[in-house]
Structures are given as structure tokens and as C-alpha cells.
Specification:
By secondary structure, the protein is of the alpha/beta class. Helices cover 45% and strands 16% of the residues. The chain folds into three domains: 203 residues; 95 residues, Elongation Factor Tu (Ef-tu), domain 3 (Beta Barrel), CATH 2.40.30.10; 123 residues, Nucleotide-binding domain of ferredoxin-NADP reductase (FNR) module (Rossmann fold, 3-Layer(aba) Sandwich). The protein is built from eleven helices and eleven strands. It has a six-stranded antiparallel β-sheet. A five-stranded parallel β-sheet has the order 9-8-7-10-11, with helices on both faces. Helix 2 packs antiparallel against helix 4, helix 5 packs antiparallel against helix 6 and helix 10 packs across helix 11.
């Protein structure tokens, strides 16, 4: 943009209000869809002699099944749904609401067994009717989903394998739960109730079709190729991609995309990575990836010319979405990646707003982008403070375990006026968030990006 100083586009107040209203509206839609089966329990005839505890157990099961069906919508990456919240918050909600669904569905048989212990015979797969077998298998599938998600790293389950198993178990759980409802028959005895339990399976079936076929097909029309893969400090590599036969991808600094390397996106071997390049380049983008797992350790072996597919861009973690007179960036390790994308974008725009970057790493030699950060200090109103947790003898900068008092001692005088962007390991982010809130920084000024979406 030449020598003209960049002036950020202020997000209009009506647009911000609309975004907040949209978030409330989507939340209300979600709550209504969860509670709708409970409302329809009151419609139509109910079998005589049904105790309150029995009806309560059915209500809990209906709510749990509705939550399961809606889980497919939460992971479908619809930008309009995720825009008011950010995809990391939506995935966090997806994870936490799974525990709620499991609790509700476990409570269903437990209440029935308390009411009538003879119903324990329904757990015998040899003598139980098929509707009871469907319920047991659906519940076991849901338990397996939760356990494999929580214990994935401890069990050394590869990410790709976990995703496939997770999807299969989810389909099994929802399909058999609906089959159980149909088999019992008491609660599909009116047209409205039957229509409801046709609509819910149709919803997740349609979403499954979209995720498995429609979206991958759309990605095949916009392929990318690897231009180069270059090593970086900190056991990381930068993969540079170029658009092949299309206009590229528009994204905001700090956002991320799902990346699939190979001839087809239908295999769904995709991984989320933040853009490390400036948002000014649509047809040439880069991702800086640290070796921490099976796929990331093979990035350096990807040859130039390899085909890549990108699904994006996603995320609310961007200076373009949170305009402020200045910023404080806090990075831990490879968490510098989205922040580097923001700094490179600011340099391209000649954005002169002040930025303090606190970059936490183990050793001096492991600091990713170390030399470029020094160059950016000369081009921007940027101050870089390196914190080393394992410094070599002679290091005079901040060192040791990153603490709240260390952070507060580094913050600028106008700390309450700036916005904060934090990305790195969970424990580091927790320390920073608590310290900022304790120092009086408004929670709306604090923006976090957690890489672990599982």
C-alpha cells in the first residue's frame, strides 16, 4: 500500500450488533431443536399407567438423542453458524455437550431400572427384544466416542483413524437410537411425532452426505500445489502453496484452513493449520507446521508439485475482526504461527499501530521466525520480548516458568486499551488469561486460539 499509513477499517456498530444478535438467534434455534421432542411428548395419547419417573426417563432420552443428531451440524463448518462464536468455541461446545448427551442417555435406563429392576433383563442380548438391543448398542457407541476422544493420545490412536472411527460410531449411535424410538412405538403414535423423528434422521443424514460428498467435490474444483517446503527453527517447516487454475483463497490474518495432501479430498485425511503468510496473498499462501505427530513429522518429505486441497478459511482469531488502537500478542512455541500471519499482514499494509509480542520458547535456537521478527521490529511499531524457559548460561532476558507476575511486568502502560491475542500450549494460555482478567482487562479484549480441536 505504498508509504501511506494503514488505517484499519472499523467494524460498524450495527454489524457488530447483528453479529451478536445472530449468535443469540442460533443459540435459541439450538435450544428449541433440543426441547422440541419434549414438547411433543405432551401431544397425543399416552399409554395408561405410565409413572412420572418413566416419563422423565423418556424425556431425558429424547433430549439426549436430539443433541446427538445436532452434533453433525456443529461439525459441518457452516461459516454462518460459526461466525458469531469462532470455530474453536463451537468445537469446544461440541465436545462439552457430548458429555451432557451421554449423561442424559445413561440416565434413561438407570431411571427405568430403579423404577422396575426386572427391566435389567433387557441387557441380556440373547433374550432382549431388538428395540432394547438397539438402545444398548447405541449407548455403547456413544460411550466409545467419548472415551476414544478423551483418551486418544494416551491410547496412541492416530488422528486420521480416530476421525474415521468417530464418524462411524456417531452414525451408529444416532441411527440405533432412532430405531429404538421407532421400535418402542409409544412416542411416534401421532403424525407430528412421526414427522419429528423422520426430520431428525434426515437432518443428520443430509449433513453426513454434505460432509462426505458435496464439500469434498467442491474442493476438487480448487486444487493447490506445493511450491516448496522449507525448514524453520523449532523443528518446524513452512509449506508454501500456489493456487492451480483458480483465483486462490481470501482469508483474514490469523485464520486457519483444513489441509489435505493427496490426489483426493474424499479420503478426509485433513488437518487444521493456521496461515502464516500475509492475508494480502490469495494465490500463494503458506502454513508453518511443527513436528508433533504422525502427519506433521512427514511434512518435510512432501515434494514440490504435490497436490493439496484447502477447506477454509475459518476462525474468529484475527486483528481484522477485533479492531483496537494497539495489540499485545502472546505466543508459546508454534503458537507464533497465526500471530506471524498478522504481523506480516500489518507490514504489508504499513499498519503503524503498536504491538507488543511476548514469545515464549524453551531455548534461543528453537525460536521460530526469530530473524524475521527482528526485521519486523524495524518495519513496524513492534516490540518483541523473548521469554526462555530453559535458557543457556548468560541469558539476561526473562526466563523460567511463565508466570502471571512476569506477564504483568511486561505489559505496556496503555494495557487496558489494547486487545490481546494468545496462542500456544493450554497451560500457558490459562496463565495469561487469568492474569489479564485479574489485571482488569475486559474479557472482550482477550482472544485465544487453541490448536487442539479434538
Amino acid at each position: 500500500m505504498g508509504s501511506d499509513e494503514y488505517r484499519p477499517k472499523r467494524v460498524p456498530a450495527p454489524w457488530r450488533s447483528a453479529l451478536n444478535a445472530q449468535g443469540v438467534a442460533w443459540l435459541l434455534v439450538y435450544v428449541c431443536l433440543v426441547l422440541l421432542p419434549l414438547a411433543l411428548l405432551l401431544v397425543g395419547p399416552v399409554p395408561p399407567g405410565r409413572e412420572f419417573l418413566r416419563e422423565l426417563s423418556v424425556a431425558l432420552a429424547f433430549a439426549g438423542t436430539a443433541i446427538l443428531a445436532l452434533q453433525f451440524a456443529l461439525t459441518a463448518r457452516f461459516r454462518r453458524i460459526k461466525a458469531p462464536y469462532g470455530i474453536d468455541l463451537v468445537y469446544h461446545f461440541h465436545r462439552e455437550i457430548s458429555y451432557v448427551a451421554l449423561t442424559l442417555l445413561v440416565a434413561h435406563p438407570v431411571l427405568l431400572f430403579v423404577l422396575s429392576p426386572r427391566l435389567l433383563a433387557l441387557l441380556n442380548p440373547l433374550t432382549a427384544p431388538w428395540r432394547a438391543r438397539f438402545a444398548v448398542v447405541a449407548l455403547l457407541a456413544l460411550i466409545a466416542i467419548v472415551l476414544t476422544s478423551v483418551l486418544r493420545r494416551r491410547l496412541h490412536i492416530k488422528y486420521e483413524a480416530w476421525r474415521h472411527v468417530h464418524g462411524i460410531l456417531a452414525v451408529v449411535a444416532v441411527a440405533l437410537a432412532v430405531a429404538h424410538i421407532e421400535g418402542v412405538g409409544h412416542y411416534v403414535n401421532t403424525p407430528w411425532k412421526r414427522l419429528l423423528w423422520i426430520a431428525y434422521p434426515s437432518l443428520w443424514g443430509g449433513l453426513l452426505l454434505y460432509l462426505s460428498l458435496v464439500r469434498p467435490w467442491r474442493l476438487t474444483r480448487r486444487p493447490w500445489v506445493v511450491s516448496e517446503v522449507k525448514p524453520e527453527r523449532g523443528a518446524a517447516h513452512t509449506m508454501v502453496l500456489e493456487a492451480q487454475g483458480h483465483s486462490g483463497m481470501s482469508f483474514l490474518p490469523g485464520q486457519f484452513a483444513w489441509l489435505t495432501v493427496g490426489e483426493s479430498p474424499f479420503l478426509r485425511h485433513e488437518h487444521p493449520f493456521s496461515f502464516s503468510s500475509s492475508a494480502g496473498g490469495r494465490k500463494r499462501v503458506s502454513f508453518t507446521i511443527k513436528e508433533v505427530g504422525d502427519f506433521t513429522s512427514r511434512v518435510k518429505e512432501i515434494p514440490p508439485g504435490a497436490k493439496v486441497f484447502l477447506d477454509g478459511a475459518y476462525g474468529y482469531f484475527s486483528i481484522d475482526r477485533h479492531e483496537a488502537p494497539g495489540y499485545v500478542f502472546v505466543a508459546g512455541g508454534i503458537g507464533i504461527t497465526p500471530l506471524m500471519g498478522m504481523l506480516r499482514t500489518m507490514a504489508d499494509r504499513d499498519d503503524r499501530r503498536p504491538v507488543l509480542l511476548i514469545d515464549v520458547n524453551r531455548e534461543w535456537e528453537s525460536i521460530t521466525f526469530r530473524e524475521e521478527l527482528a526485521e519486523l521490529e524495524q518495519r513496524l511499531e513492534l516490540t518483541v520480548v523473548h521469554v526462555l524457559t530453559r535458557p543457556a548460561p548468560g541469558w539476561t532476558g526473562p526466563s523460567g516458568r511463565f508466570r502471571a507476575d512476569m506477564l504483568c511486568g511486561l505489559l505496556p502502560d496503555d494495557m487496558l486499551e489494547r486487545d490481546y491475542f494468545i496462542c500456544g500450549p493450554g497451560p500457558l494460555m490459562d496463565v495469561v488469561e487469568r492474569a489479564l482478567h485479574g489485571a482488569g482487562v475486559h474479557f472482550r479484549q482477550v482472544h485465544s486460539e487453541r490448536f487442539d480441536l479434538v
